[in-house]
Design a protein that fits this description.
heterodimer; A: about 475 residues; mainly alpha; B: mainly alpha
Chain lengths: ~475, ~350
C-alpha cells in the first residue's frame, strides 16, 4: 500500500476516524497496531509473521536484559539479539547474492554446481525495522533506556505504519514516551501536516515519477545519448531519488502528525550543502545518525587518532552502502562518499575559515558537492558495474557515444525545480499557506489537490527505498 | 473536537477537489489531442506501411481477427467478378467505442482507396477492474461517447449488463478525473511499434491452428468437450430451424438494432460503406440477434448489406464441434470457409456497385 494510492486514503480515513473517536489510549494504540499490520500485510501477509517475530524477540530480549543478574548475562543477551537481528537481515537481504556468488565461485574453480533455485523475497522495509528494533536492545544494553513492559507499546513502536517500510528510523527513546498519555486532537497541527503531506505527494508523484521514465531511458541505453544528456540524466536521478525518498518521509511524518505523533526529520535540503560532511548531516539523517551512534562510535570513532577515525569513517560508509544491498555498486557508492568525507576533513584542516563566508566560495562548494553526490549516484542507480563505469566516464568527461538529447529541455526543468526548492527551503510557500484564513486554505487545498492529480502518472511507481 | 468547522472544512476541500479534478479531466480530454493507443492503432500503422491499395477493411473483435482471411476473401470475390483488396483490422476484445476510435484514427490517415468497412457487431462493454488503468479503458470512457456507451451496455441481452454499467461508471469516474492527464503528455515519446508478429502476407489475419500448442481458452474447451458438444448441437438445431430460437425481449432488441444502426451511420459519415458481417459465437441469443439485425438492415432502403453466418445455409459447417478452436473462435479451416463464402456472397450484393464502377 503506497501513500499515493487511493486505497491508502480510504485506509487512513478509517484509521483516523476510529483512532480519534476512541477515548482510551490503550484502545487507540491497539487500533494503530492492527492498522500497521494490515498496512504491512497489504504487500504480502507472510511479511507480518517476520515483523511479529522481530517484535517479540527484541521485546523479550529487552526484558531479559533488564532482569539479567550479571553483566556477563547482559553481554550474552545483546550478542544474541544483534546476531538474530542481523541474521534475519542477512538471510532475506543477502541470501540470493551470496548463493549466486558461491555458485559462481564454485563454477570458476571447476566444481560442477547448479544454480540455487530457492529465491527469497525481500520483505519490504526489513532494513528499517530491523535497525529500529536493534537500537532498542542496544540502548537498553547501554543503559540509555528502560525496557518497555507493555508489549502493545513496543509492537506499536516497531510496527507504526507511517514509518514502517521506509523510515525515518525512529529511536525508541524518541517514540516510546509519545505512547504515554491520551492525545488531544486540538493539539494536532492539522494544517501543517496537510501542507507537509501535500508537498511530499507533489515531490513523489509529480516530480519523481514524471522524471523516472527519462532517467530509466538514459540509464538503460547510455550509449544512445550525448555526454551532456548523461550528465543531465544523472542530475535528474539525483532529483528523482531525493523527491522520492524525502517525499515519502514528508508523507510519513505528516501521517504520524495527524495521529498525534512526531517523527524525526530525515532531510534538510541536502543538495544545498556546501560540503559532503554537511550533506550527510542533511541526507537520510535517521540512517546516518544511526550508523554514527551504533557503528562509527562503537568502532572507536575518532578517539584513536586521525587515521583511525578515517578508517572508521570509511568502514561505516562502506557498510552504509552495503545496507542498501549486496552489490559492488553500493560498495563503490559508500567508498566514494567515505573517501570524500575523509578528503573534506583533511581539506578543512588547512582551509582558511574566512573563505567559507564568501558567497562565490559557497556556491562553488555547493556545486562541487552536488557534482560529487551525482557521480556517486551513478553507482547507486546503474544496473551493474560495467554500466556504471561507462556512465561515470561519460559524466566526468561530458562525452557520450550517442546522439539522443534530453539536456536541452531538462536543464530548464532542473533550474525550475531548484528555484522552487530554494524558495520552500526558506519556508516561503508553507508560511504563506499557513497564514490563509481557514475557508481559503481548505478551498485552495482542494483545488491544488485536483490540479496535482493531473501531474500524477496513472501507473504507480513504488518508492525507491522500499527495495532497501 | 470541534466537529462543525472540521466537517465544513472537509466538505469545502472535497467540493473544490471534485470540481477541479473533473473540470480539468473532462475539459482536458475534450481539448487535448488524444494520445496514440498502440494496442488499437498498431494495425493501422502496419496497414499503412504495407499496403496503400486497401479498399476494404474488416473490423471487429477477435472473432473477426481469427475468422477473416483477406487473401481468401479477395480471391473468392475476384473470381466472382469483384476485384477487392482487403485487410483484417480485427483486434481482440474490441468494443463499440474502441471500434469508433479505431475507425476515426483510420479515417484521419486518409487511406487513399479505402471505401468499405465490413464490421462484426463489437463486443459488449464489460470492463474488468484488473484492466481499469489501461489505455483501452481510457478510450472506452471518452465523455463524448458516454451516451452511446451506456446505450450499448443497456442494449445487450445479457443479465450482467447492470454490472457492466456499474463498472463503466467507475471507470468513467476514474478516467475522467484529472489523474495523469498532464503526466501522459510529459512521458517520453513511445518507441516505434513493434514489428508485426505475423507475416505481412496475412494482412492482419491471425489464424488459429488446433494442431499448434493450445491456448488457455482452448484447454478450457478441450476439458469441457461434452458440454461444448451439447451446446453446438443446440445451436446447430436453432440455426437450422429444427428448434425455436432463443428469445430476446423485443424492446431490448430494438435498442440493439438502434445501436448497430448508429455504428453503421457513423461508418458512413467517415466516407465508407458499412457492411454488417455477423460472425458466429456460442451464445444462443446471438443467432436470434443476428437474424433480427439482418431483417432490420439487409433490405432496400437501409443500404447496409448483411452477411450472416448464423443461419441455415452455414449451420452444418459452423456448428460442428470440430469447427471451434475455443468457446468463441473458429479454427483456421472454418475461417477459410467463412472468408471464401463472405467474398462470394458480398460480391453478389456488391455486383451493382462494381458494374457501375466498371462503366465509369
Amino acid at each position: 500500500m503506497l501513500f499515493v494510492e487511493p486505497r491508502f486514503f480510504v485506509f487512513f480515513a478509517i484509521v483516523f476516524a476510529l483512532y480519534w473517536s476512541l477515548r482510551r489510549n490503550d484502545l487507540r494504540k491497539l487500533v494503530l497496531l492492527v492498522a500497521s499490520y494490515i498496512f504491512y500485510g497489504a504487500w504480502d501477509p507472510r511479511f507480518t509473521l517476520l515483523l511479529a517475530f522481530s517484535t517479540l524477540f527484541d521485546f523479550g530480549a529487552g526484558l531479559m536484559m533488564e532482569a539479567a543478574p550479571s553483566q556477563r548475562r547482559r553481554h550474552l543477551i545483546i550478542a544474541v539479539s544483534v546476531t538474530v537481528n542481523l541474521a534475519l537481515l542477512f538471510t532475506f537481504k543477502y541470501f540470493n547474492f551470496f548463493a549466486d556468488s558461491f555458485v559462481t565461485l564454485l563454477q570458476a574453480a571447476g566444481v560442477a554446481a547448479n544454480p540455487v533455485t530457492v529465491r527469497l523475497i525481500l520483505p519490504v522495509g526489513i532494513s528499517f525495522y530491523t535497525f529500529q528494533s536493534l537500537s532498542y536492545t542496544l540502548d537498553i544494553y547501554r543503559g540509555h533506556l528502560r525496557a518497555r513492559r507493555s508489549l502493545l507499546d513496543y509492537a506499536t513502536f516497531v510496527g507504526f505504519f507511517p514509518q514502517l517500510v521506509a523510515g525515518p528510523i525512529v529511536r525508541a527513546y524518541d517514540f516510546l514516551p509519545q505512547l504515554d498519555g491520551l492525545k488531544r486532537f486540538a493539539d494536532v497541527p492539522v494544517r501543517r501536516a496537510l501542507i507537509l503531506f501535500f508537498f511530499g505527494y507533489v515531490k513523489k508523484s509529480c516530480v519523481s515519477d514524471n522524471l523516472a521514465p527519462y532517467v530509466d531511458a538514459v540509464f538503460s541505453h547510455p550509449g544512445d545519448y550525448t555526454g551532456l544528456s548523461i550528465m543531465t540524466a544523472t542530475m535528474l536521478y539525483a532529483i528523482q531519488i531525493y523527491c522520492d525518498f524525502s517525499g515519502y518521509t514528508d508523507m510519513a511524518i505528516a501521517t504520524a502528525k495527524l495521529l498525534g505523533y512526531d517523527l524525526t526529520v530525515n532531510f534538510r535540503h541536502p543538495y544545498f550543502s556546501t560540503s559532503i560532511s554537511t550533506f550527510w548531516r542533511r541526507w537520510h539523517i535517521s540512517l546516518s545518525s544511526w550508523l554514527r551512534d551504533y557503528l562509527y562510535i562503537p568502532l572507536g570513532g575518532n578517539r584513536g587518532g586521525r587515521l583511525a577515525g578515517y578508517r572508521n569513517l570509511l568502514v561505516t560508509m562502506v557498510l552504509g552502502g552495503l545496507w542498501h544491498g549486496a552489490s559492488w555498486n553500493f560498495v563503490i557508492w559508500g567508498t566514494l562518499h567515505g573517501g570524500a568525507l575523509i578528503l573534506h576533513k583533511e581539506y578543512a584542516r588547512w582551509r582558511p575559515e574566512a573563505l567559507t563566508d564568501h558567497a562565490a566560495y559557497r556556491v562553488g562548494a555547493m556545486l562541487l558537492t552536488f557534482w560529487w553526490v551525482c557521480l556517486a549516484w551513478i553507482f547507486f542507480r546503474a544496473a551493474n558495474l560495467p554500466a556504471a563505469m561507462e556512465l561515470a566516464r561519460s559524466f566526468v568527461t561530458m562525452s557520450g557515444t550517442g546522439t539522443l538529447d534530453i539536456a536541452s529541455w531538462a536543464a530548464a526543468v532542473i533550474l525550475g525545480l531548484g528555484l522552487l526548492h530554494a524558495i520552500e527551503a526558506r519556508g516561503l510557500i508553507s508560511n504563506a499557506l499557513m497564514s490563509l484564513r481557514r475557508p481559503s486554505f481548505y478551498a485552495l487545498a482542494g483545488t491544488a489537490a485536483g490540479v496535482v492529480l493531473a501531474f500524477t502518472p496513472a501507473a504507480y511507481r513504488p518508492f525507491i527505498y522500499f527495495q532497501f | 473536537m470541534q466537529i462543525r468547522p472540521n466537517v465544513a472544512s472537509a466538505a469545502l476541500f472535497a467540493g473544490c477537489f471534485l470540481i477541479t479534478t473533473y473540470g480539468i479531466g473532462i475539459a482536458g480530454r475534450l481539448a487535448l489531442p488524444p494520445p496514440d493507443v498502440g494496442e488499437l492503432t498498431d494495425k493501422i500503422h502496419t496497414l499503412e506501411r504495407n499496403d496503400a491499395d486497401i479498399d476494404t477493411i474488416a473490423i471487429g473483435s477477435s472473432r473477426m481477427l481469427h475468422a477473416f482471411d483477406p487473401v481468401l476473401f479477395d480471391q473468392a470475390a475476384r473470381q466472382a467478378g469483384c476485384p477487392i483488396h482487403s485487410y483484417n483490422l480485427g483486434i481482440g476484445g474490441l468494443n463499440l467505442i474502441e471500434m469508433r476510435y479505431v475507425l476515426r484514427r483510420l479515417a484521419a490517415d486518409h487511406p487513399p482507396r479505402l471505401s468499405r468497412a465490413l464490421f462484426d457487431p463489437p463486443n459488449d462493454i464489460h470492463i474488468e477492474f484488473t484492466n481499469l488503468k489501461s489505455q483501452r479503458v481510457w478510450v472506452t470512457t471518452d465523455p463524448r461517447e458516454a451516451p452511446l456507451a451506456i446505450a450499448d451496455i443497456l442494449s445487450h441481452p445479457d443479465p450482467r449488463k447492470y454490472s457492466s454499467l456499474a463498472r463503466y461508471l467507475v471507470a468513467f469516474l476514474y478516467h475522467n478525473s484529472a489523474l495523469g492527464l498532464a503526466s501522459r503528455y510529459l512521458e517520453p515519446a513511445a518507441a516505434p511499434p513493434a514489428p508485426p508478429r505475423q507475416a505481412a502476407s496475412l494482412r492482419g489475419y491471425e489464424p488459429l491452428d488446433p494442431g499448434a500448442a493450445p491456448t488457455v481458452e482452448r484447454v478450457g474447451l478441450l476439458r469441457d468437450r461434452d458440454n461444448f458438444g451439447r451446446t453446438t448441437q443446440t445451436l446447430h438445431d436453432q440455426a437450422a430451424d429444427r428448434i425455436g430460437p432463443a428469445p430476446i425481449d423485443a424492446g431490448q432488441e430494438n435498442q440493439r438494432i438502434a445501436v448497430i444502426r448508429r455504428l453503421a451511420n457513423f461508418i458512413r459519415t467517415l466516407g465508407y460503406e458499412p457492411v454488417l458481417m455477423s460472425l458466429p459465437d456460442t451464445y444462443g441469443e446471438s443467432i436470434t440477434d443476428a437474424r433480427d439485425l439482418q431483417a432490420a438492415f439487409d433490405r432496400p432502403g437501409t443500404q447496409i448489406p448483411v452477411v450472416n453466418f448464423m443461419d441455415k445455409a452455414d449451420a452444418g459447417i459452423i456448428y460442428d464441434t470440430a469447427s471451434w478452436y475455443d468457446w468463441a473462435h473458429l479454427t483456421q479451416s472454418v475461417a477459410t470457409y467463412v472468408s471464401t463464402t463472405a467474398g462470394q456472397r458480398l460480391c453478389r450484393k456488391f455486383s451493382a456497385d462494381f458494374s457501375q464502377a466498371a462503366e465509369r
